[in-house]
Amino acid sequence: ELSYQLESCTTDTEKELAKIKRVKHSLDLEIQKLRKENTHLRDRLNSLGVDTTDFITTSVKDSSSQSSLQNSRVNSNSILEDNRLIFGTSTVGDQIQFLQEELERKTTELCLVKSRNDDTENIKQKDALAKMHRLTGLVFQEFKEVKKSYLALKHEVKASPLSTGEIVKEIQLQVQKSLTDLNSRYKEVVEKYLREMKLRKKYHNELVELRGNIRVLCRVRPWIKEDGTEEDSCVVTLDSDDDTLIKINNKGRIQLFDVDKAFGTDSTQTQIFDEVSSLVRSVIDGYNVCIFAYGQTGSGKTYTMEGPKSNPGINQRALKLLFEETVDENWKYEISASVLEIYNEVIRDLLNPDHNCKLEVKMKPEGGLHVPELIAVSVTDLTKVNQIFETGKKNRITASTNMNEHSSRSHCLLCVTVTGTNPTTGSKSLGHLNLVDLAGSERVSKSMADGIQLKEAQNINKSLSCLGDVIHAL
User: Fold this and answer.
1) Given a cut of 80, is residue 21 above it in pLDDT?
2) Which residue of 356, 379, 424, 431 has the fewest C-beta atoms within 10 A of its own C-beta?
3) Is 319 buried (19+), middle (13-18) or exposed (0-12) by CB count in 10 A?
4) pTM for the complete prediction?
5) In a domain, 169, yes or no
6) Do 393 and 346 share a structural domain?
7) Statement to judge: residues 116 and 203 lie in one domain
């Protein structure tokens, strides 16, 4: 602050000096102007003197000539008249004296103005110097106080029992102790987190088991044009008070079926997936899950599993959920997918351009079934998943029957593998998700299948019958 005041005072002084210099310069210009006027007047006076001398000489030489004298007088009177016009009615000598007095008066006034300006400048300079002296005194006083504080601090440091090095070591020990405590608390938090994650997985999967390892859901398809024109003749109805009960009108005889949950004709793809989403989460925990759509041809199995692009089914929604749930800082996950179909009891890889490649189901050395040489593609987003779906859909075999214009003639399987690794603990998990769109069961007498389609229908019905036996045994 003191340095700022000194700088401000110096700036004010410099401004005043500049102002005084400008006044002095203007006065110098005024003096030069007066001097020029004085010189001009002296030249005029000298000119008047020369004219008078010439007049006297002419008068002496031409005294004999009255007319010449008269002319000279006229000229002289004319000159004098001019002089009177310039200098007034005074005589030349009086005018000169007047001009000299005026010059002296102007000079005296100029000296007085200059003296007053000099006095003003001196006063301002003295005030500025006095102000600077006061500020300098304050600065020196503050400097003395700072120096005194510094000496006291220096004395205190010297008198301290610990050296600087010892203080640094003590601080380092304290920091090290704090870091050790933090690491210990961090490990405790991680252990608690892992325990909670294990409990979450345990309770989640116990809940899934309590709801049933095998669940049967029924979705009633809305009325379509292939059903005819009598919409009132719908044979399947749901109980409004119990969403697990289905009523079927079989030629006038009502049959009741009990399932885990039934969905009406107004159900949405989102509602269907919400019911099975907990099963998809179990795959991340290392469980094997299978979801398949079963029903006669034209019942809407492919719509429920695949669905259109604008309203996707279980397949795409399941992959999307896996991508969202596998975003974990403590675990690293890899998701791969393969698509195959079973057509006339023959396995075909829908992602392999070589459709003649023979595939077989074999037993793994560590246990479990697998299909060697089946192409598995790593997927990280829905764009890649949609590409796989399009390729598989394009290569899948369909045909037109009396029951369905685009009847699937094979069982289609989307096999998803989720591999998880915890870099911190080294733990690993492996889960499988099989999403199956079964071929539709059909009565040959209604579908009017013949030739190749008849063989397809026979193989489809045979495999579905075997599947029913397996589920019944479970």
Assistant:
1) no
2) 356
3) buried
4) 0.56
5) no
6) yes
7) no
**Strand, helix or coil at 219?**
strand
Residue 400 marked as a ligand binder: no
Same domain for 255 and 272, yes or no, is no
Contact (CB, 8 A) for 434 and 414: yes
Give the pLDDT score at 444. Answer: 60
> 228 lies in which domain range?
217-267
Domain presence at residue 167: no
Q: Which residues of 136-157 are buried (b: 16+ CB within 10 A; e: fewer)?
A: eeeeeeeeeeeeeeeeeeeeee
First to last CA, the chain: 91
Does a structural domain hold residue 105? yes
AA identity, residue 206: E
Whether residue 282 contacts residue 203, with contact meaning beta carbons closer than 8 Å, is answered with: no
- What pLDDT, on a 0 to 100 scale, did the predictor assign at position 94? 64
Is the pLDDT at 158 greater than 60? The verdict is yes
Claim to verify: residue 296 and residue 433 sit in the same structural domain: yes
187 is in an annotated binding site: no
Same domain, residue pair 42 and 79: yes
C-alpha to C-alpha distance for 81 and 68, rounded to whole angstroms: 19
Same-domain status, 279 and 334: yes
Has residue 314 got a pLDDT over 70?
yes
Q: Is 89 annotated as a binding residue?
A: no
The C-alpha atoms of residue 91 and residue 83 are separated, in whole angstroms, by 8
Question: For 13-17, what is the mean pLDDT?
Answer: 64
Rg (CA), the chain: 59
**296 among the known binding-site residues?**
yes
How far is residue 371 from each of residues 110, 137, 290, 292, measured CA to CA in Å? Answer: 120, 97, 17, 19
Does the annotation flag 144 for ligand binding? Answer: no
Q: Are residues 62 and 94 in the same domain?
A: yes
411-421 and 369-370 strand pairing:
unpaired
Please tell me whether 297 is known to bind a ligand: yes
Residue 60 has φ and ψ, to the nearest 5°, of -70, -45
Whether 301 has a binding-site annotation, put simply, is yes
Highest averaged pLDDT of the listed ranges 213-222, 263-272, 424-433: 263-272
